[in-house]
From TrEMBL, chain A:
Annotated InterPro entries: Cyt_cd1_C_sf, Haem_d1_sf, Host-pathogen_enzymatic-act
SUPFAM superfamilies per UniProt: C-terminal (heme d1) domain of cytochrome cd1-nitrite reductase
Organism: Tabrizicola soli
Recorded superkingdom: Bacteria
Leader sequence segment: 1-17
Pfam families in the cross-refs: Cytochrom_D1
Keywords, comma-separated and alphabetical: Signal
UniProt name for this protein: Cytochrome D1 domain-containing protein
Length: 380, 123
C-alpha cells in the first residue's frame, strides 16, 4: 500500500518533464574551423549549446537517425561521429578513412554510409555501434552518395565517372554498376521521389540522369551544350547538388562556369529557361510550399543571396545577408530560412514572406545548417 | 573591388599588342619572381590572404591542407615545388582540373606570399 502511494505521488509529479526536450524543431550548425557544432532551437531562434571534438569539419555534412535523436557527422578528416542531441555529447566516433566528403543513412535508419576520397570508396557502418559492416573500394574519389529506398545507396566516382547502386538489404551487399555518367562528376543528388539520380559534370558540359524506378537504370545525358556561345569563367567553388531545386515540374540547376541558373523540364529534360544571376551558383534550394528558389554564390561574390521565381524565371529579390554566405536551410514548411555567414560568424534568420531578417545567432565560422526534419527526407 | 594588379604590372607593361604584352608580362613576372623580397604585403592584406587560404582554398584542399578534391598542400607535400611554380599554379590554375586561375583576384606578389605561406616560410 505504501509502495502504491509512493508510486502515485511519483506519477503526479513528473519531475523530469521540465527537463525533457523534443528534437523536432532542433538543428545543428557546423562550425567548420573549430570542429564543433552549435545545437539550435528553430522555434526559439536560439542556440542551446555547443558540441566539440569533431575534428576537421571543412566541407562537413550530417544526417539524422529516424528518431531525430542522433546526428551522424561526416568530417573532412575521415571522421564519422555520432552525436546525441539530447545529452549533447559525442557517443561514438571512428576515423574511418584519411579523407572523406559526405554520407547518408539508410531508409530504415540501420546503416550509415560514408563516401571517401582517400582511400576512395564507400564504407558502411552499423548506425547503432558504428561498427564496419561493408567496405566497397573504388578506383577514385567517391562523390554524390545518397540513400535509396530499400536499404540501398547510390554513389559516383569523380575520377572515372562510374555510378554504382549498392543493395545492403541482404546478408551480403550487392553492388551493381549503372554505367558511366561522364567526365569528372562533381556531385549528385536524388530527387525527392527517389525516381531520378542526377549527376552533375565538371569535366564536360552536362548532367546525367539515372531512372532508379527502372529495374535496369541507364545513363541519360542532357544539358550538354549550355553556354556554348560564351567563354566559361573560373569556378571558385564547386556547386553543391544536395540543394538542387525541384519545382514547377523543373530542375533548377547551376551552370558550371557561368553565372546562370538553368531550368530544365523534368519530363523531357529539355532546357526551358536560363536566369542570369549574381555569380557562380553554389546552392539552389527550393523554398518549401512556394514557387521560389534561393541561390547563393561562390567566392568572391558570396555576400549575396538571390530569390528567383520558378514560374517567370526572374530574380525577384537580391539580399546581402553577410560575408561569405555558405549555406541556407529552410524551416520544413518554408516560413523561415536560416543563412550561414562564415566571415561574420553568424547565422541569419530571414522571414521568407517579407524577406526581412528577423533574428541572428552567433556561431564560429558557420557552414552547413541541418534541421532534424531532414531525418524524414529521402536523399538527405 | 580595386584593381590590385595594377601596382605590380604597370611599370613593365605599357599596353603593347596582345601577344607581346603576354610575353612581357611573363618576363615581368619572372623578374618579380626572381626577387626574393618581392612578396611584400601589408599586414591587413596578409591577414585577409591567410583567411582566404584557410577558408576558400580549404574548401577543396582541406582546412588543414591535407587535401580533398584538390591535392594536399602541406609543407611536406609542397617541399619539392619552388615558390615561383606554386605562384604560377595559383595565378593560372591547372587546366583540365578543378583548380581555377586566381589571377583575377590576386596580384603576383600576393600569389608569391601564398606560396611562401603554404611552404611554411612566411616572412
Amino acid at each position: 500500500m505504501k509502495r502504491l502511494a509512493l508510486l502515485a505521488a511519483f506519477l503526479a509529479t513528473p519531475l523530469w518533464a521540465e527537463d525533457l526536450v523534443a528534437t523536432g524543431d532542433l538543428g545543428l550548425v557546423i562550425e567548420r574551423a573549430t570542429g564543433s557544432l552549435v545545437l539550435v532551437d528553430r522555434s526559439d531562434r536560439a542556440a542551446l549549446g555547443r558540441i566539440e571534438g569533431l575534428g576537421d569539419l571543412s566541407h562537413a555534412s550530417l544526417t539524422y537517425s529516424p528518431d531525430e535523436r542522433f546526428a551522424y557527422v561526416f568530417g573532412r578528416d575521415g571522421g564519422l561521429t555520432k552525436v546525441d542531441i539530447l545529452t549533447r555529447q559525442v557517443v561514438a566516433r571512428t576515423v574511418q578513412a584519411g579523407n572523406s566528403i559526405g554520407g547518408a543513412i539508410s531508409d530504415d535508419g540501420k546503416l550509415v554510409a560514408v563516401s571517401n576520397y582517400e582511400p576512395g570508396g564507400v564504407k558502411v557502418f552499423d548506425a547503432q555501434t558504428l561498427e564496419l559492416v561493408a567496405d566497397i573500394p573504388a578506383a577514385g574519389k567517391t562523390i554524390g552518395l545518397v540513400d535509396v529506398p530499400g536499404r540501398r545507396f547510390a554513389w559516383t566516382i569523380w575520377d572515372t565517372g562510374e555510378v554504382f547502386l549498392g543493395d545492403f538489404s541482404g546478408a551480403e551487399p550487392v553492388i551493381t554498376p549503372l554505367g558511366n555518367a561522364g567526365k569528372n562528376p562533381f556531385d549528385a543528388v536524388l530527387t525527392d521521389d527517389a525516381h531520378t539520380y542526377l549527376v552533375g559534370l565538371f569535366g564536360e558540359k552536362g548532367v546525367t540522369s539515372f531512372d532508379l524506378w527502372d529495374p535496369a537504370p541507364k545513363p541519360q545525358k542532357f544539358l550538354t551544350d549550355y553556354g556554348k556561345d560564351g567563354e566559361d569563367m573560373p569556378v571558385y567553388k564547386m556547386p553543391h547538388l544536395q540543394g538542387w531545386a525541384f519545382t514547377e515540374g523543373q530542375y533548377a540547376l547551376p551552370a558550371v562556369g557561368r553565372h546562370e541558373i538553368l531550368w530544365v523540364d523534368r519530363a523531357s529534360e529539355k532546357t526551358v529557361a536560363t536566369t542570369p544571376v549574381h555569380g557562380q551558383p553554389v546552392f539552389i534550394i527550393a523554398q518549401p510550399a512556394s514557387p521560389y528558389v534561393w541561390v547563393n554564390f561562390a567566392t568572391p561574390l558570396n555576400d549575396t543571396v538571390q530569390v528567383v521565381d520558378s514560374r517567370t524565371h526572374e530574380v525577384v529579390a537580391t539580399l546581402s545577408p553577410g560575408k561569405a554566405v555558405l549555406h541556407m536551410e529552410f524551416a520544413p514548411r518554408g516560413a523561415e530560412v536560416w543563412i550561414s555567414s562564415r566571415d561574420d560568424n553568424k547565422v541569419l534568420i530571414y522571414d521568407t514572406r517579407t524577406r526581412e531578417k528577423v533574428a541572428e545567432i552567433a556561431a564560429e565560422a558557420p557552414s552547413g545548417i541541418f534541421f532534424t526534419a531532414r531525418a524524414h527526407q529521402t536523399g538527405l | 573591388m580595386p584593381d590590385r594588379r595594377r601596382s605590380s604590372s604597370t611599370s613593365c607593361t605599357p599596353r603593347p599588342p596582345a601577344r607581346v604584352h603576354a610575353v612581357l608580362k611573363e618576363l615581368c613576372l619572372l623578374i618579380l619572381l626572381a626577387t626574393p623580397a618581392a612578396a611584400e604585403i601589408a599586414p591587413d592584406r596578409a591577414a585577409a590572404l591567410e583567411h582566404m587560404v584557410v577558408q576558400d582554398c580549404g574548401s577543396c584542399h582541406g582546412l588543414t591542407m591535407k587535401g580533398g578534391l584538390g591535392r594536399p598542400l602541406t609543407h611536406e607535400a609542397l617541399a619539392p615545388s619552388d615558390r615561383e611554380t606554386l605562384a604560377l599554379i595559383i595565378l593560372d590554375g591547372v587546366p583540365g582540373t578543378a583548380m581555377p586561375p586566381w589571377r583575377p583576384l590576386l596580384t603576383e606578389d600576393e600569389a608569391l606570399w601564398i606560396a611562401d605561406y603554404l611552404k611554411g616560410v612566411t616572412p
